[in-house]
Amino acid sequence: MARAGELGADQALTFLREIDSINMRRRGQMVEMTREALGGATFLGRRVAVLGATFKPDSDDVRDSPP
Length: 67
Known about the structure:
Layout: H1 2-6, H2 10-37
């Protein structure tokens, strides 16, 4: 994103920042949905698995994927 700003692509940079913001909010929403599924309980002492969590089909590029 920094390079887009250097090249004068301000609109593209704004768009990319908004996408990043949406993606970060989705992570938080997923945590809250999981907490609700646990009855509002804490995650302490619980084991939670996430299956099929991929969003880059046909790619092995995982640079910004959550750990």
